[in-house]
Structures are given as C-alpha cells and as structure tokens.
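Handout, page 2. Input:
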Amino acid sequence: EALFLAPAATLSLAYAHLEARRLAEAEGALLRSQARYPDNVLNNMVLARVLIMRGKLTQALVLLDRVQAVDTDNHRVHYYRATALMRTGALQGAHESIDLYLSLPLEPLYQAVGWHRKGDIHVRERNWEAAIEFIAPAIEDMPMKEPPPAFTMSGVVCFTQSIVLKTFKWRTRRNSSVS
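Output:
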C-alpha cells in the first residue's frame, strides 16, 4: 500500500523526486494526493508539469483545464498550456496561450520566460527571425547576474537561446555565402 502524506508533504516529496529526475515517482505521489484533493490547484499544476515532462501531453491539457476551472486567474496555466500545445504540434493554440500569458501583468522574470516560450514556438515553426525577435529580449531582460545551472528552467532558457542564436547565425552566414 502506498504511503500517503498531507498535501504539503506530498508536494515536498514530489519536488524531491523532480530534483532527482524520478518523474514516475513524482507523478505517483501527485496522483495519490489528487485522489484525495482533486481540486488542489498547486498539486494539479505540479502534476501537469510532470505530465508534460513525461510526454503525457493530452493528460496534462485535461488537467490544466481543471485547474483553470477552479482558479480562473492562474497565469501559469496559460504558460503550461502553451508548452503542452507546442509539444503536441498545435502551434496556433500554443501561440494563443502564450499570448494570453504575456498579456497578463507579470514580474520581469516571468515576462522573460514567456517571451522565450514564444520564441520556442517560433523555433518549432522554423521561423528563425521571429524566434530571435522574442528570445533575444528575453535573455536581455532575464534578471540574472550569471548563468544558472543547466537543470533549472532558466538554464534551459540560456541553453536554448544559444542554440537558436548559433543556428540563426549559421543559416545567415550560409545563405549569404550561397548568393
């Protein structure tokens, strides 16, 4: 029989599993908590993130709908929805979700992360110029003094932007040398 902890302890356990990249265990802990507290917004948001990370995108989108029904002002729902839709290939829906997220009053870090996600969607479309248009200001406005560790979300932002910038520069050099 599974061990059940109170919601806060379950979230702590889930985060410990996430840090160790034990996604199946994190999902299990969060699902057990969800069975007892189906409308717990924080639990469901973390569970949606885990589902996205595990590639269970349809389940994540259904869960994000549930969160939004309970907490209509939750701006993170739109960010995670954009991420899940982008990964399913529903790029128009991803643009709509991230645009809604970016239309909300956000702290500078969250605004920068949103711009970066918008750039990621353009990368999926292979629209390099548009990707740079959103990723470059995201990096400039990212309130960091030095690059964070690669396993953090901001580290992924820095890593991804460098790939996009290098790809864009390489394509630009290649296209100008061909003409």
